Structures are given as structure tokens and as C-alpha cells.
């Protein structure tokens, strides 16, 4: 099997994001993926870093924009500054314009992890405000959701969110990573590597099948996926919902491409009133049961499959 290539790229002033990066890289590597650790180029002067009492930098190589082309996925370790990404990460993305212009990163994947001083200092906003970098490059974002049980453990303060692992460093940086935060980091490393590896394996199977014209290509794409590719992109799940009235309502043609019509027939509201479908109360849509979640905190238990 072709191993997925993953770059864990981080910035860290006091060491928390570095610790997360190392835990994430180790867990990713354990899946069989090829994993390399990098640092974002520092943009602050030595003088400023000294005034901030920054920790010495690790020896991991400094990432260059072109290095990104060599990987299938990236795990970005981006500490929080004023609720968003540290400038070093932002400056690095500013240097990737050439890759953007050539679509060099289209089809790759990324996850985000972070660190903030306080529990509510912006871990989620740091991830959210980093998403435009990914979107503009055509990189697909892979969150971690709540599958790591530590994320819903309220017996102690735990950094991290559905957007990725995180440390809570404390105002003076003295709070170390807890076992639970490290477990979330390991989960992110493992799940991301498995996700990207699945994609890489499928892609290489498709490429091999194309080369040999073997029927494996058909097997590589699940029948259900093939069937839905022709289907309407947005289809209501609920077949019991009220019948559509679009056939009787006049259309401006805006969506169909037809010329807008000035019709003398009754406006939509009146037409609907006149049709039996509209005068009969629409059958109540049956409430579809939600799939069982990872935890039962939200909503009523009966709304979830056990
Ligand atoms: C200029 C500056 C802005 C910061 N802004 C925030 C913030 O908005 N919220 C927060 O909780 N922590 C904030 N912090 C604290 C850092 O997020 C924290 O020191 C960092 O995540 C620790 O990670 P590290 O040990 O890898 O450097 C800020 C720190 C600096 C230097």
C-alpha cells in the first residue's frame, strides 16, 4: 500500500504546541504514514523573542512553501494570538501565492491544532479563522469532531475542541499538557493519518486500474457513490414531506435558464390555494431518528438511536 505523506508544521514560543506536534506526529507515524515535522519560519526578531522569554527553538527543519507539494496532508500547529493564528503561520501562507496560482495544493488535506493561555482564549476561533487559507488553496479541512472521549469529559479542564487538539498554557505558560490533552492529540494524529491514507490508497488504486484498464476501477468506487453521482445534488431525505408545488407556481426562469415570463395566471399563493394539494394539510414529516452520537448530552435521548 502507498503510505500517505504527512507534514506536521508548527510554531511554538513556549513549547506547548511543539509538545502537541510531537505527540501528533508520533501517533500519525504509528499508522504507517510517512510523517515529517517542520516549524513555521519565525518572524519575530531575537530581541523581541528574548523579551518574551521564548523557549529555545527545536531542531526540526523550517518549512518552505515548495515543501508542501511533497505531502498529501498537513497538520498545522498554530498558537492563538488575539483569538486567531500566530503571525508566523499567517506570514507563511502569505508566501504560498505561487502554489495558490498554480493550484499546487488542490486536493490535499489539513487539520489544525492550537494552544491558548486560557480556556476560552480562542482555540476554536484560531481554527476557524485559519480555514480561509485552506479554502483558497483547495485544501480540505479535516476536523476531529467529538470522537475522542476526553473532549466531552467535564471532570477537569481539557483543551481541544471539535476543530482539533489544543493545550491550555496558562497566562504565564506554566500549565503543562495534561494526559487527556495528549490523548486528544494522539487521536488527531491517528485519525488524520488514517483518513488521508484511505484517500491515498483509493486514489492509487484508481490510477492503477486506469493504467491496466482492469475492472478494479469499478470496485474502487463504491456502487452507492457511483449511483449518487448522477443524482440531483440536493435531495430531501424526507419522502413524506409535502408535495412540491413548483410545477404549479410560475417561475421566473432564474434557475432553469429559461427567459423570465410575465404570466397572466394566478400568482403562486393563489394557485396553491386553488389546488387540492395545498388545501389538504401536508402530511407531517416523520422525524428521522438521528444516528447515535458519541455522547448523549444534547437533545432528548429518544431522538438518538442506541
Ligand atoms: C501577543 C500574544 C497574544 C496572545 N493572544 C492570546 C489570546 O487571544 N488568547 C489566549 O488564550 N492566549 C493568547 N496568548 C497566549 C498564547 O496563545 C500562548 O502563550 C501560546 O498558545 C502558548 O503556546 P506555545 O507554548 O506553543 O508558544 C497570546 C500570546 C501572545 C504573545
From TrEMBL:
SUPFAM superfamilies: Flavoproteins (SSF52218). One of its GO terms (molecular function) is NAD(P)H dehydrogenase (quinone) activity. Residues 6-192 form the Flavodoxin-like domain. Residues 243-286 have a biased composition (Low complexity). InterPro entries: Flavodoxin/NO_synth, Flavoprotein-like_sf, Flavoprotein_WrbA-like, FMN_Rdtase-like_dom. Gene3D superfamilies: 3.40.50.360. Residues 243-292 are annotated as: Disordered. GO terms for cellular component: membrane. Belongs to the WrbA family. NCBIfam families: flav_wrbA (TIGR01755), PRK03767.1 (NF002999). This is Flavo protein-like protein. It comes from Leucosporidium creatinivorum. The lineage of its organism: Eukaryota, Fungi, Dikarya, Basidiomycota, Pucciniomycotina.
Amino acid at each position: 500500500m502507498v503510505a500517505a505523506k504527512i507534514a506536521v508544521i508548527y510554531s511554538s514560543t513556549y513549547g506547548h504546541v511543539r509538545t502537541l506536534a510531537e505527540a501528533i506526529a508520533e501517533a500519525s507515524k504509528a499508522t504507517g504514514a510517512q510523517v515529517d515535522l517542520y516549524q513555521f519560519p519565525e518572524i519575530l526578531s531575537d530581541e523581541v523573542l528574548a523579551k518574551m522569554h521564548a523557549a529555545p527553538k527545536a531542531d526540526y527543519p523550517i518549512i518552505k512553501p515548495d515543501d508542501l507539494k511533497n505531502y498529501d496532508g498537513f497538520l498545522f500547529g498554530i498558537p492563538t494570538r488575539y483569538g486567531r493564528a500566530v503571525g508566523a503561520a499567517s506570514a507563511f501562507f502569505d508566501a504560498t501565492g505561487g502554489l495558490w496560482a498554480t493550484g499546487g495544493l488542490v486536493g490535499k488535506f489539513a487539520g489544525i491544532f492550537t494552544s491558548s493561555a486560557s480556556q476560552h482564549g480562542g482555540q476554536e476561533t484560531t481554527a476557524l479563522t485559519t480555514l480561509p487559507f485552506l479554502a483558497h488553496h483547495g485544501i480540505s479541512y479535516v476536523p476531529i469532531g467529538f470522537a475522542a472521549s476526553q473532549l466531552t469529559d467535564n471532570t477537569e479542564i481539557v483543551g481541544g475542541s471539535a476543530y482539533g487538539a489544543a493545550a491550555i498554557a496558562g497566562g504565564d505558560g506554566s500549565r503543562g499538557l495534561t494526559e487527556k490533552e495528549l490523548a486528544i492529540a494522539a487521536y488527531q494524529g491517528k485519525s488524520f493519518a488514517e483518513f488521508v491514507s484511505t484517500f491515498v490508497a483509493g486514489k492509487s488504486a484508481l490510477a492503477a486500474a486506469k493504467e491496466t484498464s482492469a475492472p478494479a476501477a469499478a470496485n474502487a468506487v463504491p456502487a452507492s457513490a457511483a449511483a449518487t453521482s448522477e443524482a440531483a445534488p440536493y435531495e430531501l431525505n424526507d419522502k413524506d414531506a409535502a408535495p412540491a408545488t413548483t410545477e404549479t407556481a410560475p417561475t421566473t426562469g432564474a434557475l432553469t435558464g429559461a427567459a423570465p415570463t410575465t404570466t397572466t395566471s394566478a400568482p403562486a399563493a393563489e394557485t396553491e390555494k386553488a389546488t387540492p394539494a395545498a388545501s389538504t394539510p401536508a402530511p407531517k414529516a416523520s422525524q428521522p431518528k438521528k444516528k447515535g452520537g458519541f455522547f448523549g448530552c444534547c437533545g432528548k435521548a429518544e431522538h438518538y438511536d442506541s
